[in-house]
Design a protein that fits this description.
By secondary structure, the protein is an all-alpha fold. 78% of the residues lie in helices and 0% in strands.
Length: 120
């Protein structure tokens, strides 16, 4: 077999590397890159995408951790948005107007500073 000759030529026969294992590694890498399972199916020449998904998609702990981290991040972002919305809802009209005046003052100071810098 070509693969066996390749392993001998490169002194890899002492390692437990099999061609079929490389197919699994290849498909797992594509799954971890969120590649479309139908694309992976075609690359592996499977007739049914179920084979690609169930047999050639190993999930290790790192893959699971990354997925749960992404989900936790989204949940935290959503909670922060809701808290911010609640804080805004809790503000009185007077407080909103006061904050707007403060922002307008800051913008005016910034504008003056730019004008002063431009004059130099």
């Amino acid at each position: 077999m070509v693969f066996d000759r390749f392993k001998r030529r490169h002194n890899l026969d002492k390692y437990n590397i099999h061609f079929h294992g490389l197919r699994h590694t290849f498909s797992n890498m594509l799954f971890e890159l969120n590649e479309n399972p139908k694309v992976i199916q075609q690359l592996l020449c499977h007739k049914d995408v179920k084979t690609t998904i169930t047999v050639y998609n190993s999930v290790n702990s790192e893959y699971v951790r990354e997925a749960t981290d992404r989900l936790n991040t989204k949940i935290q972002e959503h909670e922060q948005e809701r808290e911010t919305e609640q804080e805004i809802d809790d503000l009185s009209d007077e407080e909103i107007e006061r904050q707007i005046r403060e922002l307008e003052k800051l913008q005016e100071r910034k504008r003056r500073r730019k004008e002063k810098d431009f004059e130099m």
